[in-house]
Amino acid sequence: MMDNKPCPCGSTASFAECCALIIKDHSLAKTAEQLMRSRYTAFTLEDNNYLLKTWAKESRPETLNIEEAPVQWLDLKVENHEEGSEKDIKGTVTFTARFISSDHLCHLHEESRFVREDNKWFYLDGTPESSTKKISRNEKCPCGSGKKYKRCCL
Ligand SMILES: [Zn+2]
Ligand SMILES: [Zn+2]
Prior knowledge:
Blueprint: H1 19-24, H2 32-44, H3 48-53, E1 72-83, E2 90-101, E3 104-117, E4 120-126, E5 129-134
The structure holds zinc ion (2 copies).
């Protein structure tokens, strides 16, 4: 479907050559940051199964139904990471993700913790902080199209 489009995670690669591979085979996420990016992409695809599969056992929710509260994801910026390399067993990734939900632009800022078990990275937990701002109909759409919000993502 969107295979040749840029990957939602914001890398320069296409979806097919980026997160699609990791979502198919979780073990291909070599770093905590790669796993984090693939989980962001899974959020945009409403892929509950992948999100559950990549959640550490100790903090994994029983079920997940993210399609019940759909949002329009805009972009992801990875701001920092500590450890989380192929040689580590834990790591943290700090990021900001933006989305639109009921006419509000939301910035979700989180420092996520990851653990590596059996050569696979898993999401452990995070400290999300979010800020929201109402989008007026006539302002430029936050998606970056250059059009007014009312003629774009509204
Ligand atoms: Zn990606
Ligand atoms: Zn837009």
